[in-house]
Input
Amino acid sequence: MCEGEFIDSAISAPSTTTTNMTPSPSTTTTMTVTETVSVDPVIKEQFLAAELEEVNRLRELAKKDTWKPTIVWRNVALFAMLHAGALVGLYQYVFMAKWLTCLWCLVCWTISGVGITAGSHRLWSHKSYKAKMPLRIILVAMNCVSFQNDIIEWSRDHRCHHKWTDTDADPHNVNRGFFFSHMGWLLCRKHPKIKEMGAKLDLSDLTSDPILAFQRKYYLPLVVLFCFLMPTAVPVYFWRENALVAFYTAALLRYAVTLHATWLINSAAHTFGYRPYDVNISPVESVWTTVTAFGEGGHNYHHSFPQDYRTSEMSALFNFTKLFIDFFAAIGWAYDLKTASEESISRQQLKQLEEVRKQYEANQHRDTTTTTTKQKAQ
Ligand code: ST9
Ligand code: ZN
Ligand code: ZN
Output
């Protein structure tokens, strides 16, 4: 491995710190008691670690919350049109497109996907490594192919997601349902708590970056160029593909697929899978989204060790983004790659076994008490 820095290098001893944490409503456990769970400083003091006390406070406030989402019909119409176009693109991809165009769609998917994973996600949201100017320019260009909001906006929302996961301050709060966390959140106005809590974030690292300021200023023309015109023009110019076929496949179909691959991390990777690193949170380890999202499916790991540039322990074979960053580290354009140490990873996993045992015993105790109460009543 070529990582340069352990996230926990400054922290020597295992934690004795304790934090009151109510198990997430989205966990599979049926336990209802409030457990006191010790939180390792290695976990707690990382950049973008979950703010557990605020999470609890926000969950209490949510019980009295009467907010109802306001649908933004413009977005509903635009996404409906995109999906209709993507279906046409799918037909053309299968029956009409030249094989080079099919290959080009995969290339564009990779470019746009890695523009998100290595760019707005691991570099700018999480600061899990540093990048020199040429790499930052490449990543911004790749990011424009993905058209997922400018990097400052994307990272601001993502920082809210990590600090206040599954609360009203989380833009794609999975407690509002699978569809909401997948794409519903982009079809309605944001909950006021997102704006209130998000306003407390320090975004100076992002707003002071001139490349990000440039992207934000010229975002619309940049995405028209990189997300729609460039993917269409290349097949037309180089192998004389029909312009409409190129547009529907390499622009619309590829864009829709990349969006869904990204959204699945917010929906599926917060729902279906296992939780070896923290049993009390909704994010899971999801092998198949790791493949479709270039190494981002190890989401239980990622929420536990948010500043690890690998975002997962899964092998490099499935973690294309890690290989991408490693390549640029090898030529010196990426540096200060942060990882969690094997020791703190193992310690965290062992703690989960203890946690599961405690939850099992609490459930057993509750079942016994319920049975005894029922017997007495008879
Ligand atoms: C898209 C993004 O798809 C997808 C992100 C997914 C993230 C996934 C993460 C998973 C991990 C990584 C995995 C990568 C895998 C990649 C695989 C690839 C193969 N904090 O937003 P507005 C304030 S985008 C603080 O208009 P509304 C702020 O003042 C798709 N403040 O709110 C702001 O003004 P400004 C394409 C905040 O009116 C103001 O509020 N894009 C925050 O409620 C207004 O903000 C679209 O479809 C905050 N967090 O509207 C666009 N947020 O910005 C869709 C807001 O000037 N978006 N404020 O500072 C919209 O139309 C609107 O945002 C809205 C809400 C209707 C959703
Ligand atoms: Zn993240
Ligand atoms: Zn997440």
